[in-house]
Amino acid sequence: MKPINFKESTIELKKPSSMTEEECGSLPIHQTEDGVCISCWTVPLWKRLKFLFHGKIWLGIHSGRTQPPVWLDCTKTVFTKPQ
Questions:
Q1: What are phi and psi of 34, to 5 degrees?
Q2: Is the separation of the CB atoms in 30 and 10 below 8 Å?
Q3: Of the candidates 32, 25, 27, 38, which has an alpha carbon nearest to the alpha carbon of residue 4?
Q4: Is 60 exceeded by the pLDDT of residue 69?
Q5: Which residues does residue 11 pair with via DSSP β-bridges, in sequence order?
Q6: What is the pLDDT of residues 6-64, one digit of tens each?
Q7: Better pLDDT: 66 or 72
Q8: Distance, CA of 38 to CA of 9 (rounded, Å)
């Protein structure tokens, strides 16, 4: 999986200085007023096929001994137009 830029992104998170480009890259995000950071990822076809057959996605977060609240979605967009 690879993070991609998207039109709603408002900031780019840089990798920690202690990590190499192979370990971690920059991450374009949309940061909401209530502190939610949203990123968009692209998935190669072969990984999509693996998901189709296994139905699992693993999430790893480098955050110490705990994990902050996170969510995953596979819709076309998570941004809705105000009504």
A1: -95, 15
A2: yes
A3: 27
A4: yes
A5: 29
A6: 999 999 999 888 889 888 889 999 999 998 999 999 999 999 999 999 999 888 888 87
A7: 72
A8: 8
Residues for the chain: how many in total? 83
CA nearest neighbour of 42 among 3, 13, 72, 69: 3
C-alpha angle 51/30/42, rounded to 5°? 25
pLDDT at 3 over 90: yes
Tokens 């995953």 belong to which residue? Answer: 72
Token duo for residue 41: 């990822």
End-to-end CA distance of the chain: 33
Contact yes or no for 30/37 (Cβ under 8 A): yes
| Pick from 61, 6, 2, 1: nearest CA to 38 | 6
Residue from 62, 15, 13 nearest 37 by CA: 13
Owner of token pair 């920059």: 26
The residues with which 37 forms a beta bridge, in sequence order, are: 31
